[in-house]
Specification:
Layout: H1 2-23, E1 40-60, E2 78-92, E3 95-105, E4 108-115, E5 121-144, E6 147-168, E7 182-202, E8 207-226, E9 233-252
């Protein structure tokens, strides 16, 4: 009798628990997280480093075949950069295209010296790349909804300068009183080209971080300067390129 009573009590308790559970509201599912939307305008900041790839060739302007000119000098320099950028992305499925512009402050200055084949003359040379900017197209694909891999290319504009001279090395007592000497310089704002690649990761629909490499070619400058105690002039033809590695943070404007 006692066992029958206990069994009846357990059955009644389970039935009551089931009824109470049936009356309880179901727990709401957490809201779904929206997929990253890459389309829209953005602003950002960048920083990194760069290595200059500069060179200058010398030739006697009035007599190119005349021997004794210093050989090519490559006064490559390196340094850091900081800048700002703005752009627009447009997403179609897993592909993202857009346009991006940036302005960067950097002072890449290198110094080198070339000595003529006779050893009597040398050309100390300094080349500098200062403020520059780029305007580029970007096209890439989404490796994941949050990770964009892209290629980029377009135009580059930058300030470059050259300072050089043609002086005796001092061998056999040569100096600017009894030997030819000259000083030349050039500065210009040059328009060139850039190409590169990078990756960008979306931390949210409004913030992303990026890393990229750019090769920048700012073209050439030429200058001609007179030489004392000589009937000829010296011409210096210079080129300006650089390798840029930088990282940045972008902030997308507007609604997600």
């Amino acid at each position: 009798m006692k066992k029958r009573f206990i069994a009846s009590f357990v059955v009644a308790l389970l039935s009551a628990a089931s009824a109470v559970a049936a009356d309880l509201p179901l727990k709401a599912r957490p809201p779904a997280v929206a997929a990253t939307n890459w389309s829209g305008f953005y602003l950002g900041v960048v920083g990194g480093g760069e290595i200059g790839q500069t060179s200058t060739d010398f030739i006697f302007a009035n007599n190119p075949a005349y021997p004794g000119t210093p050989g090519r000098v490559s006064p490559n320099g390196s340094g850091g950069l900081i800048g700002a950028e703005a752009g627009y992305n447009y997403q179609v499925g897993s592909f993202v295209g857009g346009i991006e512009g940036d302005v960067d402050y950097a002072r890449i200055s290198g110094f080198g010296t070339s000595v003529g084949p006779s050893g009597f003359f040398m050309a100390p040379t300094q080349q500098t790349i200062n403020l520059y900017g780029t305007l580029r197209g970007r096209v890439g694909f989404l490796a994941t909804p949050d990770l964009l891999l892209y290629a980029t290319g377009g135009m580059a504009v930058g300030d470059v300068s050259l300072a050089t001279s043609f002086v005796p090395t001092g061998i056999l007592g040569g100096n600017c009183i009894n030997s030819s000497c000259g000083v030349g310089s050039a500065s210009a704002t040059k328009v060139g080209a850039t190409v590169g690649a990078g990756l960008e990761y979306a931390l949210s629909n409004h913030i992303s971080i990026k890393a990229e490499y750019l090769y920048v070619d700012l073209g050439h400058t030429s200058t001609t300067f007179p030489l004392t105690l000589a009937v000829s002039q010296m011409a210096a033809n210079s080129s300006y390129q650089e390798h840029v590695v930088r990282a940045g943070v972008n902030f997308k404007l507007g609604a997600p």
